[in-house]
């Protein structure tokens, strides 16, 4: 009877070790698969973020160029207005100088 119990316990222990070995193997496989999935998801997320960042940068550059063009056009217009104003006032200035200093 003792021998039967011992054999039964030994068999149960072997079965338990086999079950643990299988569980470890499955958990390592699952962990490996999960890591692989997480790395793939991380790469996708990084690529999406990179693309979004590049898009935002492109939009920012385009907006800056547009603002710079508008500023340049406004500056040219302002300079032309100042030149015209000076041209229109030049005769009055010359007349003033002639009257004040030569007068």
How many runs of DSSP E, i.e. beta strands?
0
Spatial separation of the terminal alpha carbons: 144 Å
- Compute the number of helices: 1
Shape: rod-shaped
Order of helices and strands: H
Tell me the major beta sheet. Answer: none
- Binned strand content: under 5%
Rounded to the nearest angstrom, the radius of gyration is 43 Å
Question: Can you give the helix content as a percent range?
Answer: over 70%
Low-pLDDT sequence parts: none
Q: Return the structural class.
A: mainly alpha
Mean pLDDT: 94
SSE order and pairing:
Layout: H1 2-102
Task: Describe the overall structure.
By secondary structure, the chain is mainly α. It has one helix spanning 2-102. The radius of gyration is 43 Å and the shape is rod-shaped. The model has no long low-confidence stretch (mean pLDDT 94).
Question: What is this entry, summarized?
Answer:
This protein is mainly α.
Which characteristics define this entry?
single chain, 1 helix, 0% strand, rod-shaped
């Amino acid at each position: 009877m003792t021998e039967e119990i011992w054999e039964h316990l030994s068999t149960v222990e072997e079965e338990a070790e086999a079950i643990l070995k299988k569980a470890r193997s499955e958990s390592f496989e699952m962990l490996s698969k999960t890591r692989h999935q997480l790395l793939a998801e991380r790469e996708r997320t990084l690529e999406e973020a990179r693309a979004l960042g590049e898009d935002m940068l492109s939009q920012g550059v385009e907006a800056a160029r547009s603002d710079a063009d508008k500023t340049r056009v406004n500056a040219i217009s302002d300079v032309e207005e100042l030149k015209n104003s000076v041209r229109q006032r030049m005769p009055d200035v010359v007349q003033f100088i002639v009257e004040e200093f030569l007068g």
